[in-house]
Write a structure and sequence with these properties.
With about 325 residues, this protein is α/β, with parallel strands linked by helices. It has helices at about 20-30, 35-45, 55-65, 80-90, 110-115, 140-150, 165, 170-185, 205-215, 235-250, 265-280, 295-310, and strands at about 65-70, 105, 125-130, 155-160, 190-195, 220, 255-260, 290-295. The longest helix is centred in the last third of the chain and has 18 residues, at about 235-250.
Length: about 325
Amino acid sequence: MTMPTNASAAAHPLSDITSSDSTLRRFLHGLPGVDAVGLEARAASLGTRSIKTTAKAYAIDLAISMVDLTTLEGADTPGKVRALGAKAVRPDPTDRTTPATAAVCVYPDMVAAAKEAVAGSTVKVASVATAFPAGRAALAVKLADVRDAVAAGADEIDMVIDRGAFLGGNYMKVYDEIVAVKEACGTAARLKVIFETGELSTYDNIRRASWLGMLAGADFIKTSTGKVAVNATPANTLLMLEAVRDFRAQTGIQVGVKPAGGIRTSKDAIKFLVLVNETAGEDWLDNHWFRFGASSLLNDLLMQRQKLATGRYSGPDYVTVD
């Protein structure tokens, strides 16, 4: 695994690009246009790759280890979060060889309960912040949201960008907010920047948002909140994987990718792992650099894992309903 190399927004060779609004705009609009037909065709082609037996078992375990097990509902309770944390630590209580998930993702007020539930394990606690999912709040409110989550013990912060500012061409405002949130995370928490790709309208905008997030110091770039109609797709994830690959080639800084929303089956997860391997490369095939934002995916991964081990599917009570 490549060790973390992400540093402050000012530390990389492209930092002069963000010295003014005009230079940032010029850079973002100078990025190559996206061939939508070619992008979607490549994503579809990679999705047809067949993975069998031993390789499939490895891929399922890898996918389990990359899940950010998520609950982001108004009805969340400490009890529900503790149960989710227990499942993250030991996804299959009947099989101790099952890997733990990467993280549990909750609202800031549930961080303390999640932290207690995963204590002593490798499972991280991630928290959405910055007025998730709409991001419609003053910067001071967003930063207070982040600081509360970090103070409660969050290891990772998932922030949303101001899509209105981005779509209005106010790139420097978006950049400055990401930088401020990164600073609020301090050294305690890694920062995932959510673009809500379903609201960005074009692939060109997704490419620009990817570079903007990385220039501002994101540790991860993330597709979606899971709260809109269009979330993670193979095509938009492929585009973001190309961006992190090219960013590392230019700066030496590695940034993670997190597709979120709509990935529900083992078959889908494996398709995304193929995208990672064939686009960014093996360095990203680790939960330090790639995650699945999901609530229902884990259950299907566990069912498929059990099928590979025993040759049959268990009954519907084999996994918990979260």
